[in-house]
Amino acid sequence: MRRVKLGIIGVGEIGTVHATNIVRDVPGAELTAVADLRVEKARECARSLGVTKFYARTEELLADRDVEAVLICTTPESHAQILIAAAAAGKNIFCEKPLGLEPVEAEKALARVEAAGVLLQVGFNRRFDASFKRIKEHIDAGKLGTPHSVHIISRDPEPPGKEYYLLSGGILLDMTIHDFDMARHLIGDEVVEVYVAGSTLIAPWLAEHGDADTLAVILKFSRGAVGIISNSCKAVFGYDQRVEVFGERGMVSATNPLPDTTIIVNGEGHRTPPLFHFFTERYRASYAEELRSFVDSVANGTKPVVTGRDGLIGIQIATAARTSLRTGSPVRL
Amino acid sequence: MRRVKLGIIGVGEIGTVHATNIVRDVPGAELTAVADLRVEKARECARSLGVTKFYARTEELLADRDVEAVLICTTPESHAQILIAAAAAGKNIFCEKPLGLEPVEAEKALARVEAAGVLLQVGFNRRFDASFKRIKEHIDAGKLGTPHSVHIISRDPEPPGKEYYLLSGGILLDMTIHDFDMARHLIGDEVVEVYVAGSTLIAPWLAEHGDADTLAVILKFSRGAVGIISNSCKAVFGYDQRVEVFGERGMVSATNPLPDTTIIVNGEGHRTPPLFHFFTERYRASYAEELRSFVDSVANGTKPVVTGRDGLIGIQIATAARTSLRTGSPVRL
Amino acid sequence: MRRVKLGIIGVGEIGTVHATNIVRDVPGAELTAVADLRVEKARECARSLGVTKFYARTEELLADRDVEAVLICTTPESHAQILIAAAAAGKNIFCEKPLGLEPVEAEKALARVEAAGVLLQVGFNRRFDASFKRIKEHIDAGKLGTPHSVHIISRDPEPPGKEYYLLSGGILLDMTIHDFDMARHLIGDEVVEVYVAGSTLIAPWLAEHGDADTLAVILKFSRGAVGIISNSCKAVFGYDQRVEVFGERGMVSATNPLPDTTIIVNGEGHRTPPLFHFFTERYRASYAEELRSFVDSVANGTKPVVTGRDGLIGIQIATAARTSLRTGSPVRL
Amino acid sequence: MRRVKLGIIGVGEIGTVHATNIVRDVPGAELTAVADLRVEKARECARSLGVTKFYARTEELLADRDVEAVLICTTPESHAQILIAAAAAGKNIFCEKPLGLEPVEAEKALARVEAAGVLLQVGFNRRFDASFKRIKEHIDAGKLGTPHSVHIISRDPEPPGKEYYLLSGGILLDMTIHDFDMARHLIGDEVVEVYVAGSTLIAPWLAEHGDADTLAVILKFSRGAVGIISNSCKAVFGYDQRVEVFGERGMVSATNPLPDTTIIVNGEGHRTPPLFHFFTERYRASYAEELRSFVDSVANGTKPVVTGRDGLIGIQIATAARTSLRTGSPVRL
């Protein structure tokens, strides 16, 4: 079996997750090169995983003829620009969310990607989570009938650091965008209106940026279903990620996986273990699965499961949501 | 122990639940008389429970000197008027929700109740559910820290019949009012704004009344917490009633009780039993508990756990919610 | 509907449970008289439940012509003798387990009951538990196929007091007898051999009586299924009562019901409530159900769900089990 | 970090599991060579994992100076002999259970291993399962107090094939040995007596070998605790592996992990997914963990977590259990 040759641009937290997964859990690929402006990071990542080539500059990696496809894992504000450069270099692309900080920027990048005829998959990894996949299959098989509502609870264990926050595009674009994508993925319909209520109960400094740490979102879908998203930037009990879809013939949901199945029973009751702390543990398997899917698409020339358009729509909803949060009124898309 | 003498006005479904509970599960009370415009209903209820007095007319029961306290269990549109008559007769009052169909009507009735100096408890029975009580105790004990959000899922097994619907004040006043009350009860704060999105995916005729069968509600509380309510008029799997409160120090939730604890395991997975079908089964114990609490208040002259003001606020939120559903914009209270 | 007139002999803990249930939850019966050697107990029970007749002596109650059926709720060592007297008086009989302290004694009593042609139901209340009933129905409907094994975990919250213990016939006859009955009820076959291992890890004084507080039992059934019972006299977390039946087509089990459905989540994990403390809470509904079943049998002349033979077989297995515990070898029945 | 060089003898099902784990999930080791009498198997395994050396004969691999430690993954009847050869070759050894088919054989091999001064770990992989490890930690931390009983349910999805069975030493040595080890590991005490009841309800041909497919086992421990094991060779719902330890201060248990966390709700109830089918899926992580532990021991010269003595005791209990099954009487160790 031919192995697809991958290069990673940006080996921070998520880039390192992908690098490790490629080496261990993506049999159809090999990691050919990594790049990071912090060249020591690139060198260390390459060394620890037995990768021979590492670069400081994105351009160098894009110029490497051995690299067939790149993973864009830099900070969000640089995504659109690197997308354009990677498309120009003729590389197939896996890009972390969001594609850009504003719809216009993302649209422009997508146009270049399409013009270049390269393949693009966007990093909505949660679609590849085993439980959420089974929910989707259940719905697609018609077992739920018409979906009437989707509920997503999505809570981080800690608010973002300020430095990261300022590059991220805000909570709705960085965190809630996953939930927007999951909602439309599961309902199988497009959002026509979004309303957001929010407060700063955890990180008051977010208020200075017109942002919130505690969010409640209602989505209206074109065929009448409703979506509800509840976010918090700080769940002291760990990374809380649950989905429930209700419909004509019943309900299907997925709760948090736990690190083990123990139950401790004493006079205070029954106790099961704490949640996983954050995404690298909770979604570990989904990250490997999304790359296997990407590598399959590259190898076989098939359409990626998560398209550039999915990435763009996520940004559009997040942008409308930000307007709703700031104005206090629902916003049409 | 002295037993408080009760009379019930209206022995339809809920009146009969109360009548039976008084006889079986409220040791501090006795059922002295029942009244119903459909006098055959009153006679049958009295006969089956060994109650000697029954009346066709509310006035007759109110004139009965043996009756110390009355339960108003008629259809919603008559509540305010009977409240006024019962207060005038000097009876202590337990009144089913809602107190009236509009805030003004309810306010007027409450003023008369206060002027008469009689005691009034409103029928938000869910506050007496064992699980929801434990959630409240957990929060009141400070174990959750500051509450940040409350999520309520509340689904009926079937939409209301048209005839009942037209007397009920609509879905938000009849059904969601319980959730509005639970949300403010658990958060321990007042709602300042409400937003509702709704669709008619189940009972299209509701659209003619500006109403919906699938509802998503966001409540903003004065101290920044948010409330989320999800309603459906038709869950094919039974009466679905769940609550989750998230806060500074963790989370506390209550799910649906099941009729038994069996698990059937085969090649298709693990299966637990279906939910209870509707409120008379699912909330059976809470109805008895609310009457024991009412009877205690009457016997001891203490303030009821659910006050007339709680009843009024529920109507105010429901009325604002109806406006939001119809206009598509959030409404301040 | 005619109401069956009941008398209770012995109003200690279990007699009082039955008395209260008859008054509140057995519509087809009325409690006509109670008797207890401690006449003050009888008087108090009668007074609190509005029963007019009470007696100090069993003979008086048996001579009362108003009483159609009696409940024998005295201490175990007196059961056989009262059974004979009640049969002689022509009363239908509900008798708490065990029917006697030895098989011979019980056989003699049963012979008299049969000769008198009165109806007898034995107090294996757990057969009437909603969950265990559903397990039985599942098996009887053939959904499990041939049963291969049954596992019963049955733990008390506290060891018996010495005084009660000396009248009870020992742990195997008093406590494990319920599990023996449940095992043969669910497997639908008879036990041919029993092996018991036991220790005194909780109440060392039991060793003086050749008894144990920690027991592991294996039952062999005539058609090859095996039964496993695990007992403890002291579970610090409450009354632990679970059943699992495994067979050709899968498994069906029932776990402990909990007082409410709350889940408390924090950094230490997820916590559900403690178990019910003991049988009066955990099996409350089953006691009422067994009496409704008994009253139906009396009213309609139908065969009781739990027969005298079931009661006898329980004693036979318990007696063989005691021999196995003492000799260390399996014992054939 | 130095990587420990491993060779695998026997690349059937379990050998292949280990080979794959070494390459992917044991960073401290590398797979240097594989051997299998079926040389095509060895070649294919080596090729697919990028291993350069493969052998048909065990002796060749043992003579390979690059190999520091070997994994013995052949059929059970050959273990003792290969242990002796590997010890003679001075290799550190990881040996799959059982060490031999009879205690005498295993003792002899152990003596040679000790004399050679090489390190030996036995393949009781379940000790490395995340849930069972947490149970052990809970007990070792004293949170359970004195353990009173341990319950193990262990069911395979299918009975063994006859060919494999004849080389395996029988159900008790091949399957139940894991449960014997787990019971003494968790109780922290030694078994002094074993009693086994068994039937052939699934695979009648097992009766010809004095064996059974449905087993119930009681273990007596030296300090009074009891152990209960329930085995079946065919659970139609998958690989069922549960443990519960009960003690002075409560209980700790572990149930089966599920492939995902979905719950499907409809009128028939709530359904969670089926179990994993067999050990390669259910215990996948534990196999990698046991090898990381072995490699740590080799690299640091520390005592293995599972010793040769543990392996021997497992065989001793299994042998006594076989006698009990055949004679119908408990057997002292």
Key structural traits:
39% helix, homotetramer, seven-stranded mixed beta sheet, alpha/beta, 333 residues, 11 helices
> Number of DSSP helices of chain A?
11
What's the pLDDT, averaged over the residues of chain A?
Answer: 97
Number of strand segments of chain A: 15
Q: What is the CATH T-level topology of the largest domain in chain A?
A: Dihydrodipicolinate Reductase, domain 2
What is the assigned CATH homologous superfamily of the largest domain in chain A?
Dihydrodipicolinate Reductase, domain 2
Strand content of chain A: 25-35%
CATH architecture annotation name of the largest domain in chain A: 2-Layer Sandwich
- What kind of oligomer do you see? homotetramer
Structural class from helices and strands of chain A? alpha/beta
- State the largest interface: A-B, 38 and 38 residues
Q: Could you state the order of secondary-structure elements of chain A as H and E? A: EHEHEHEHEHEHEHHEEEEEEEHHHE
Total number of domains of chain A: 2
pLDDT under 50 segments of chain A (min length 5)? none
N- to C-terminal separation of chain A? Answer: 45 Å
Give the proportion of residues in helices of chain A. 25-40%
User: What would CATH call the class of the largest domain in chain A?
Assistant: Alpha Beta
User: What sort of overall outline of chain A do the alpha carbons produce when their principal axes are compared?
Assistant: globular
What is the CA-based Rg of chain A, rounded? Answer: 20 Å
Placed side by side, the strands forming the largest sheet of chain A appear as: 12-11-7-10-9-8-15
